[in-house]
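Record format v2
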Amino acid sequence: MNKKLQEFRNSSSFYSFIGLCALVVLCSLISSNFRSLDNVITILRQASVLLILSTGLTAVLLTGEIDLSVGATSGLIGCLCAQLLKAEFPIPVVFLIGIGMGVIFGCFNGFLVGTIKLPSFVATYATNWVASGLAIMVMNGAVIYNLPKGFTWLGTGYIAIFPVVVVIAAIIVLIAYVLLQRTTFGRDVYSLGSNADAARYSAVPVKRTLFLTFVMCSVCAAIAGLLMTARLNAADTAMGDAYGLQTVAAVVIGGTSMLGGEGSISGTIIGALILTVLVNIMNLLGISSYAQPIVAGFVIIAMVLFDAYKRFAKEKSII
Amino acid sequence: MKNKWGFLRSVQKLPPVVWMLAMLVIIFSITIPDYFAWSNITNILIQSVPILILAFAQTLVILTQGVDLSLGAQVNFCTVIWILMANSGIPLLAGAVISIAATVMIGIVNGVIIGNGRISPFIATLGTQYITNGFTLLITAGASVYFSSYIFLFVSETKILFLPLPVWIAAAVFGVTWVMLYRTKFGTNIIGLGGNSEALTLAGISINKSLIKTYAYAGLLAGIAGLITACRVESGQPTVAIGWEFEAMAAVLLGGTSLIEGKGSLVGTIFGVFLIKILQNGLNVEGVNALYQNALIGSIVLTAIILDCCARRYGKNWRNAYE
């Protein structure tokens, strides 16, 4: 037990965890509404979509690559599925098509990065551009609302006392955790991120690992897109855009290094919660929505600066 | 005999972005009547000016293996505070100087966080992007701000040698940046930073100082782009430049500047910007539905980048095969 605790203390997400705790304590002191059970459920619900997106991205960042296309991909898939639902396709079929689209986008990104060896930054940015363009085409400039009840249940319904979105997010996080921490694939991901050359020489299937991480990321984006549409009970071309960079921020706040090889899913949960709690408390306090990015920006920089400082101190102590 | 093939070989060595650009111009000149009319050419040029200036800034930053995501936010910020200051009675010229000083400050902050704080440029500038955009929206409450002055029209409409003034400003920025990058110690340091920063440290050069200077210079250019934009739209627009940093980045990458190796060229960047802008202009003039433009531009940019990457990797082999 003690050893586990020590491990956690040394992990990259330890300080993010302290940050989250401090934030929650501070918020509960400031606002009595924040403490209510309703609000806790609201926060979990708000965090779910961001969490699903960031879970997928964590895998990609761990390999040392990046996926800038998650926001637009989730938006596109949400729009596409809304159109299909309007055309009265059955819900399970729509779901399969959505996830299939996710797989296609993941393969495309994986192909560009793994096979053609484009820098992931560039390749996924271009995919982002294409996906948001396709979303505009799919929607034909309109907004769709009033989706079937069975579908919106995903976004607003409850299983026992837990909102469905939260349950789905929890399942996805669990699957990702097992994949990254308990399988050979997960070990490959980490080794690829910490030293790509060493990984190549130790016969890690680099191309396949990259493919799989990008597919994982895009499938998460697809599910997030479906849930986003179900929660809003509407689809709009721009709905995923805000998530693009926010997702990167959540993963990095959670202690995952942009250079790869270091970080974890549990850190990402903390990162997504920090961002969501921040927005939640600012809404409760009635802070102008224009001021919110300012606070978010400061928090992102502060968290990452602190992380870098800590790493620097560690390096010094080793030398 | 040798000379004849020498010319062909130098054509063969041109980067793919030039080929794509030439192809686009040929297609558009066939399908669009009067494509080479002077008005259309100046139109394309003047539309390219702000992105060109930002792309020069982004080239320098990418050469240091960084990226500046706050450039668009800096442009927004600059247009807004300039007009707001004008409204509160500060003369336009003084306001312009203060606005540029403000964006340079943002650049310095970027450089300090990235250099001294040792954090990833992507996250650092994402943070300053959030902060700057938030601040801009806060002081304007999200609405555009207006001020009327003949100076705006003077800047955007004056023509020197048949070309509008902003185009000359962009050209001047190019000249200064080129000289700085290739003819000064500072420029050598920038290129060295991307190539081998360890060697630079061992040679006794302060990486932090060079980084701060680079990001500050990027801020300066963003300020200039902001002032030109404000003159063109004759107002301060808090959201006018959202996404411009990415457009500039795409142009830089199209121009063959590499994110990893610290290699690249300013001239390539110009081709990259014109590829994007000529494409946008051509699609507009052709009357392609705006709904399809984003996806189309995205795919063409992606194709160009893939071609460039392949040409670089296999280019040597191709050339060897010919010899």
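Chain B touches chain A through 46 residues (CB under 8 Å).
Chain B is about 80% helix and 0% strand.
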